[in-house]
Amino acid sequence: xxxxxxxxxxxxxxxxxxxxxxxxxxxxxxxxxxxxxxxxxxxxxxxxxxxxxxxxxxxxxxxxxxxxxxxxxxxxxxxxxxxxxxxxxxxxxxxxxxxxxxxxxxxxxxxxxxxxxxxxxxxxxxxxxxxxxxxxxxxxxxxxxxxxxxxxxxxxxxxxxx
Length: 162
Prior knowledge:
Blueprint: H1 13-28, H2 41-69, H3 97-113, H4 116-143, H5 147-153
């Protein structure tokens, strides 16, 4: 029997690999297509302000999620064996605050970089985290009897909306 590569592991490791690739794209991918101008003037100044606000809010949400999770934190989507369900702190507002904060930060960075392609990367990251969180929530429902009720009360990625 052939051993699987580590990234195809049973805990969702391949999600982490894709996530790292997407982070690289968000941070280092071109802001716009060749020949397309980046934003200029008042529009660009406005997007810088909004980008800084979104980035700051995203950072706070990530930090709140990390603090709330504590020792439950894991890089892979499958919860740890000895983990307990978290509904306090940032998890009162959204079921995946770390993902939400990263998404907000990616949109903030896209606005700071001043190109439509940068915003597209953030949108791709949003769709990726939506897919990843669906898989994660299957495992969370298996592990915690109260998780289905929590899903009914708290939105997944965008507080009060989605």
